[in-house]
Design a protein that fits this description.
It is a single chain. The protein has 13 helices and no strands. It is 74% helix and 0% strand. α3 (40-65) runs antiparallel to α10 and α7 (144-171) packs across α11. The protein has 327 residues and is an all-alpha fold. The protein has one domain.
Length: 327
Amino acid sequence: MRLRSIQIFLGLGCTFAFLALALRHVRVDAVRETLVNVRLLWIAAAILVYAANLALRAWRWQLILRTFMEVPYLGVARALLVGYGLNAIMPARLGELFRAEFCKNDFGLARSQALTSIVIERLFDGLTVVICLGIGLLLATTKMRLLQPLLDALAIAALLFGGGLIVLLALSGTLLSQLFGRFPGLVPRLALVEQGLRVLRTRRALVLAVFTAIIYVPDSLSLWLLIKAVGVGLGLAGTLVLVGAASLSTLIPSGPAFLGTLQFAYAVAMEFAGAPRELGIAAATLAQLVFFLPLALIGTGILVHGSGKFLFTLPAKSKSASRPADS
């Protein structure tokens, strides 16, 4: 209970802090006017491309899950929508825990297996986002004053995900078993984690890297279309910086739909591209309304309709007796 309260207060604190930073020197009436005059055709196109992006993400996750078991594509897509949808509602990406629980109850995957696959998925996303931001900044001709916050974000993200890759590669061997083998109760779960992480040492890792690069084509296009809806045409550098800044902002604890942190990231990216910060605030608000709100509703609907009250009363045994179920 205390941890949850800390998470809530931390999220709210970051929301208000980043909103204050984002709205500094911003005319709220200009943001409102931009939202009233958005071009609906561009928004519709952005939503369609965003849906294609999610479909590709489900396909990639299915490929990662094959390390453990074959899962039908529709089952993978439902679980992914649950996780992504609840991420848009809950702080600190707690939706991923619900995604793992959904996997356990819907197709019998152990929590440790599901969480390992999610960590691998997020690692590839993080590394790709760092590359996008790095290329965008490399192509930039912006003044150093505008580049510095983005360079700082790039350095922190590179250390975070680069270090994460090194750690996961080390753990993909027998290091986990050596460190915690003295605890017999953990041995079966550690074996599952090591099994999942070994994909990083195989050719499938290269396939996943290429697949992730493909995924970020519609991901970037959806953001470009969204910005187009508020009247700005971003170049390649601006689009890549927006993808990087927006994605990294979702790692910061915040309120529902990444309120505050997303506004700040979009405002900085728009300023980087030479556009008014007001347009960035408006575009971030649009993203929350047309991307994250529907995703949250769909994910919650699948969770409630598909698995009833499993979040509160966990079933005694898994659907797959051959798979160990984490407690």
